Amino acid sequence: GEDVEQSLFLSVREGDSSVINCTYTDSSSTYLYWYKQEPGAGLQLLTYIFSNMDMKQDQRLTVLLNKKDKHLSLRIADTQTGDSAIYFCAESMDTGKLIFGQGTTLQVKP
Amino acid sequence: EAQVTQNPRYLITVTGKKLTVTCSQNMNHEYMSWYRQDPGLGLRQIYYSMNVEVTDKGDVPEGYKVSRKEKRNFPLILESPSPNQTSLYFCASNKGFTDTQYFGPGTRLTVL
Prior knowledge:
The complex is a heterodimer.
Chain A: E1 4-6, E2 9-13, E3 18-24, E4 31-37, E5 43-50, E6 55-58, E7 61-66, E8 71-76, E9 85-92, E10 98-100, E11 104-109
Parallel strand pairs in A: 2-11
Antiparallel strand pairs in A: 1-3, 3-8, 4-5, 4-9, 6-7, 7-8, 9-10, 9-11
Chain B: E1 4-7, E2 10-13, E3 19-25, E4 31-38, E5 42-51, E6 54-57, E7 65-66, E8 76-78, E9 87-94, E10 102-103, E11 107-111
Parallel strand pairs in B: 2-11
Antiparallel strand pairs in B: 1-3, 3-8, 4-5, 4-9, 5-6, 7-8, 9-10, 9-11
C-alpha cells in the first residue's frame, strides 16, 4: 500500500544546514511535496518536485529525489530559528489523492 | 483577502450526534480537501474533490461524508461521531496539483 515515512525529530544549531529525509513506497506518485507547519497554524507549501526530476533548488531550500530508492530529502541552508516547525513530506497520485508522512519536528538552537 | 474559512473552530460533542464542519474558499479553486491531524500520524486525507459534484475518498474516509454542490463550499459531515474521530481537522483548497494549497485555520473536534 501507499506509505510515507519520516524521522520524527531533528535538532540543529542556527547557521548549520538541516537535512530532513523521507521515504515513500508508491512508485506511481506524480509529485512530491514539502510542507511546513508552524505551531497552531495550518500547512504551508514550501516546495515540490515532479517525480521525473532529481533535484530542485529554491533559495535556501534544496530538494533531492532518488526515485530508485524512493527517497526524498529537504536541505535547508543557513538554518534560522524561524525555521523551527514541523516539516511534512507528501506524495500525490494522479488521482489527486495525497499521502503525508508523520512530520519531522525541526528544532533550531541559537 | 484570499482565504479558506472553517466553522466551528472548536467543537465538543457526544457520541452519535450528527455534526457538520463547514469549509469555504473565495479563490475559485477547483480542488478542495479535508484532512485530520493526529499526533505521530501526521495529516491524513479524508476526502478530496476535484470539482463540483466530483468527490473521492482519501486515506481515511470511514465515518465521514462530504458534498460539493458549489465550487466554494466543501462541508464535512459526521453522521454518527465516535470518540476515535476526536482530532484536529483541516480543510484546504488549491487551483491545481502543483499550486499552493491554502489551508484553513483548523477545527478541533472532541467527541465524548
